[in-house]
Automatic annotation (TrEMBL), chains A, B:
Keywords: Hydrolase. The lineage of its organism: Bacteria, Bacillati, Actinomycetota, Actinomycetes, Kitasatosporales. This is 8-oxo-dGTP diphosphatase. Its EC number is 3.6.1.55. It is an enzyme of class 3 (hydrolase).
Amino acid sequence: MRPLGVRVDDWLKDSDEVGPSWLTVDLAIFTVRDDQLMVLLVERGLEPFHGMPAMPGGYVQKNETLHEGALRELAEEAGIDGSRLHLEQLGAYADPGRDPRGRVVTVAYLALGPDLPAPVGGTDATRAFWAPVAHVEDGRLDLAFDHRAILTEALEEVRRKLEYTAAATAFCGETFTLTDLRTVYQVIWGQQLDPSNFRRKVLNTTGFVQPTGEQWLPPTGRPAALYRRGQAWLLNPPLIRAETPGQ
Amino acid sequence: MRPLGVRVDDWLKDSDEVGPSWLTVDLAIFTVRDDQLMVLLVERGLEPFHGMPAMPGGYVQKNETLHEGALRELAEEAGIDGSRLHLEQLGAYADPGRDPRGRVVTVAYLALGPDLPAPVGGTDATRAFWAPVAHVEDGRLDLAFDHRAILTEALEEVRRKLEYTAAATAFCGETFTLTDLRTVYQVIWGQQLDPSNFRRKVLNTTGFVQPTGEQWLPPTGRPAALYRRGQAWLLNPPLIRAETPGQ
DNA sequence: ACAAAAGTGTTGTTTGTACACCCATGC
DNA sequence: GCATGGGTGTACAAACAACACTTTTGT
């Protein structure tokens, strides 16, 4: 048995089996723009993977929670105020060798937001840009570290979250029409949905959306009622997507 | 801009904002026994929280993945061979102050297994024991660190996983009757299910279970057909539980 | 009037639920 | 036979999917 110490490094510093690690957060930031699901990437300004696109992220500071770190990186690297978007943890990635610099544990966060008016391009030297997820999925765009694998898991998570939670509303602005909401589903699931049945399902799911009383006038056609997010996050019943995903 | 180094500690060692952290895994191991959902706990043999019950876990070694570390701790602290049970990551917990020894990042894993013939009680000095989750939920049992919060999230996850995945089969042995499977649902959801409707739902969900052709003879009553896990993990359609969770 | 998009109705099919009923075994 | 639990049938209700139809706007 090892001697007991109050500080972990007192009794671990001589161990050759356990060593210190560095803690980072990485962000999978999604939005829907131009009928495409887009992800925010930055061009790395440092080694390793200098010049290669990557998910924004960075080291978690002392005395900072993971959530706080994610919000800070969101602001620093992407110039985005995170208070208005949905942020949730995806998971931890810590395979030895995932980072050539040593044992770097990254905690991936999922961020969902409306098409952001804020011009992206962080305060850092890194350049931020929106990329269609399709370009990452089909390999046209290569990412640093294990970010492609992380992004793939993030995507799966987003697609499933749309079924069981009100996550789709995070892609819309403060208020939105049911067509706006339906477009989010169609783009992310890659399938068409019947407008009338979609409407009924959404309105029959308690707490999903709330009518504002306001209207929105489309360029042509009948005005549409505006809604805002309801109080429910878990959908009951859920909006299950059809078997055939693509087309 | 900081100078670029290949090793992370070259350029971080002088930083007062970022410091090293220690990486652990903690395991929320569940089983169903005596019509109760049980969780495996250990009595801590070291400071901090000496003598207090905690989820089994420990430091991740160099050159070890999180998954490998979880399997190792499962064997060392609980004396369980993890190859036969379902193991999946829950999330990372890293709040500063969650461990008095410094910045300790823990990655929580969820483990689901059948009522284990293996006598628990690890190879460590720590004593392992099964505790009803109810005792933790209602506060009768206090846990070290933030393990109670982690366990609460793990429980939510298990309850939801039963709806959308074949996770319930992980609580059964290699082969099981539909009543065995139904009991798992009833115990974990805390609600009664109609045997005949449950049977139909399970058999109509493609790939959920597979008949073995074997039978099991109950102490009294008609023999029951035995099944094994199907190839599907995601259930389509899912088994949604009724609105009212506890009676 | 016409086009376009919102919103409602209708109908046939599928799924869910409750519960009665039959089956196979041990005693 | 009887008790016990496995397994099937059925009938009503709710949910779903497809699609016709009506409403409200701009041009």
